[in-house]
């Protein structure tokens, strides 16, 4: 059986997929790879794929070892660089491992695509890749890129939210309560007389440890798309900010503004720490 493979198309398709893998590694590890360096690395990988194709002696286990370790390591080093010393080698190993995982994941997706006869295994040596499938391949690459990017953005947002959450112990007249709090850079409330920072807590959480208070002031605020308003404010004895059981900061006589509305739609936190009072 005669198989005709267009080497320029083979190179272009492998270049596109290699660049996609490198770009996803960059997004996963937050690396500073530049377009030119990543293009050179993807070109080196695509050139090696063409070389394996025209030199059958490079196939088998030897070809796999050279591809995954030597060529893969060279691609990662070309795209993202490598530092000196053992730390640099360790970083290269981590990047190469992520490169393998991303490549295996995309290969699995492409294998599922191949089982549906959209392509004839062009990337796995099982037959030619028909030119009529190139538009479908472009759609697959775009879908993989945007799908993985959306998942990464979601994971990053969740990671940032978890990193900004604290446990806060509040104390007033001997009564204590521990609440979840979010460090909110948008909270720039200040007590109007002495200009001290003000933290925000829900009225429901406040009632659970503040039965009666000696003094209430009203703190002006403004939200996005809303006019100015006033929130009642109280001063408690102290509060301690913790994370994972470790005390990070203690505030003496802090001001709390009481919000009648929930601060989190999913009830993940009941308090907003002041933006400039990050522990």
How would you sum up this structure, described in words?
This protein is an alpha+beta fold and 279 residues long. It has 6 helices and 9 strands. It has a 9-stranded mixed β-sheet with strand order 4-5-8-3-9-2-1-6-7. Helix 1 (7-29) crosses helix 2, helix 2 packs antiparallel against helix 3 (60-80) and helix 3 crosses helix 4 (85-115). It is elongated.
The biggest sheet amounts to: 9 strands, mixed
Q: Which strand order does the major sheet show?
A: 4-5-8-3-9-2-1-6-7
Structural class: alpha+beta
Overall geometry: elongated
β-strand amount: 15-25%
Give the termini separation: 70 Å
How are helices and strands ordered from N to C?
A: HHHHHEEEHEEEEEE
How much helicity do the residues have?
Answer: 40-55%
Report the mean per-residue pLDDT as an integer. 76
Topology:
Elements: H1 7-29, H2 35-54, H3 60-80, H4 85-115, H5 134-163, E1 165-172, E2 175-183, E3 198-202, H6 203-207, E4 217-222, E5 228-235, E6 238-243, E7 246-252, E8 255-259, E9 271-273
Parallel strand pairs: 2-9, 3-8
Antiparallel strand pairs: 1-2, 1-6, 3-9, 4-5, 5-8, 6-7
Helix pairs in contact: 1-2, 1-4, 1-5, 2-3, 3-4
């Amino acid at each position: 059986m005669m198989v005709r493979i267009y080497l320029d198309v083979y190179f272009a398709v492998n270049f596109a997929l290699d660049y996609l893998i490198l770009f996803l590694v960059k997004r996963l590890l937050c690396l500073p790879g530049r377009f030119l360096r990543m293009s050179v690395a993807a070109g080196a990988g695509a050139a090696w794929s063409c070389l394996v194709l025209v030199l059958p002696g490079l196939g088998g286990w030897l070809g796999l070892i050279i591809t995954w370790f030597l060529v893969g390591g060279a691609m990662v080093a070309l795209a993202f660089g490598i530092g000196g010393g053992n730390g640099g080698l360790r970083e290269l190993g981590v990047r190469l491992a992520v490169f393998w995982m991303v490549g295996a994941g995309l290969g699995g997706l492409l294998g599922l695509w191949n089982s549906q006869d959209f392509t004839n295994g062009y990337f796995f040596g099982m037959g030619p890749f028909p030119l009529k499938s190139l538009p479908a391949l472009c759609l697959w690459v775009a879908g993989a890129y945007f799908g993985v990017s959306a998942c990464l953005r979601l994971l990053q947002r969740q990671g940032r939210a978890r990193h900004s959450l604290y446990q806060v112990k509040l104390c007033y007249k001997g009564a204590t309560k521990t609440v979840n709090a979010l460090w909110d850079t948008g909270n720039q409330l200040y007590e109007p007389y002495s200009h001290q920072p003000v933290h925000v807590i829900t009225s429901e959480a406040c009632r659970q440890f503040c039965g009666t208070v000696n003094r209430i002031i009203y703190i002006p605020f403004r939200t996005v798309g809303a006019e100015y308003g006033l929130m009642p404010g109280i001063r408690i004895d102290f509060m301690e900010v913790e994370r994972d059981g470790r005390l990070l900061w203690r505030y003496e006589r802090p001001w709390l503004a009481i919000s009648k509305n929930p601060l989190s739609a999913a009830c993940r936190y009941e308090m907003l720490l002041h933006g400039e009072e990050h522990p």
